[in-house]
């Protein structure tokens, strides 16, 4: 998920997200780990990644119950989640770790006739990128929305959620290594050569907090 939080509510948001929202989500069956990242340039951007046991967790009765019964604190803060992009993904390729000092996400779509070739190229890139100096992991994800209706939590936000079609997530210890990857193998013109449509969106983030379910039980 990606969104923006204004500075005026940032402290309240971070308190809520770490001390209520993370424990609430990670108490649900199938939720393994959550991590929150802040824009590395000091802007308002937020990136949140939840790692799940199965894609089916996203349509479980327990998860839907939480989405449709937000807490008073959630009700107060959800309208401040601006420009929300929320993608429920299947993992296409995954190499290395999911937590380090920094993360880069690239959101994009394939051209219709090139999806298979693009997937193969980026899966190969994920395997090699995870071993580059300064990097720690690389993961290719594809959005697949669960078959559920609109939820109360979604209705609290001031606009409809967007979604990212495919996502490449690179995890790194060094910002320079992520920027170099963005300027080379994940540059828009290179993605286009492998079959991506125009309009890719890249962002670089710094880790704010991370937890696994057992830590918050």
General form: globular
Q: How are the strands of the biggest sheet laid out side by side?
A: 4-1-3-2-9-6-8-7-5
The tally of structural domains comes to 1
N-to-C terminal Cα separation, in Å?
A: 23 Å
How does this structure look, described?
By secondary structure, the chain is α+β, with helices and mostly antiparallel strands. The chain has one domain (2-216): 2-Layer Sandwich (Alpha-Beta Plaits), CATH 3.30.70.100. 34% of the residues lie in helices and 31% in strands. The chain is built from eight helices and nine strands. It has helices at residues 7-26, 61-67, 72-77, 115-129, 152-156, 175-183, 188-194, 213-216, and strands spanning 2-4, 31-39, 45-52, 82-85, 89-96, 102-108, 135-143, 166-172, 201-212. Strands 4-1-3-2-9-6-8-7-5 form a nine-stranded antiparallel β-sheet. The longest helix has 20 residues, at 7-26. The radius of gyration is 17 Å and the shape is globular. It starts with a strand and ends with a helix.
Topology:
Elements: E1 2-4, H1 7-26, E2 31-39, E3 45-52, H2 61-67, H3 72-77, E4 82-85, E5 89-96, E6 102-108, H4 115-129, E7 135-143, H5 152-156, E8 166-172, H6 175-183, H7 188-194, E9 201-212, H8 213-216
Antiparallel strand pairs: 1-3, 1-4, 2-3, 2-9, 5-7, 6-8, 6-9, 7-8
Provide key terms for this protein.
single chain; 217 residues; alpha+beta; 8 helices; 31% strand
């Amino acid at each position: 998920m990606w969104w923006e939080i204004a500075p005026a509510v940032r402290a309240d948001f971070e308190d809520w997200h770490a001390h209520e929202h993370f424990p609430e989500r990670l108490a649900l069956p199938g939720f393994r780990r959550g991590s929150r990242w802040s824009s590395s340039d000091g802007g308002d951007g937020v990136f949140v990644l939840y790692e799940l046991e199965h894609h089916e967790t996203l349509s479980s009765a327990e998860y839907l119950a939480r989405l449709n019964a937000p807490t008073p604190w959630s009700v107060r803060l959800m309208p401040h989640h601006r420009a929300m992009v929320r993608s429920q993904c299947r993992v296409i390729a995954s190499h290395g770790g999911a937590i380090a000092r920094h993360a880069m996400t690239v959101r994009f779509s394939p051209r219709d006739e090139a999806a298979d070739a693009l997937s193969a190229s980026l899966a190969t890139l994920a395997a090699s990128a995870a071993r580059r100096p300064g990097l720690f992991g690389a993961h290719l994800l594809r959005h697949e929305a669960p078959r559920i209706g609109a939820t109360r939590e979604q209705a609290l936000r001031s606009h409809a959620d967007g979604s990212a079609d495919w996502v490449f997530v690179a995890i790194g210890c060094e910002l320079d290594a992520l920027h170099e990857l963005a300027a080379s193998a994940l540059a828009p013109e290179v993605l286009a050569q492998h079959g991506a449509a125009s309009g890719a969106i890249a962002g670089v983030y710094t880790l704010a907090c991370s937890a696994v379910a057992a830590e918050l039980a």
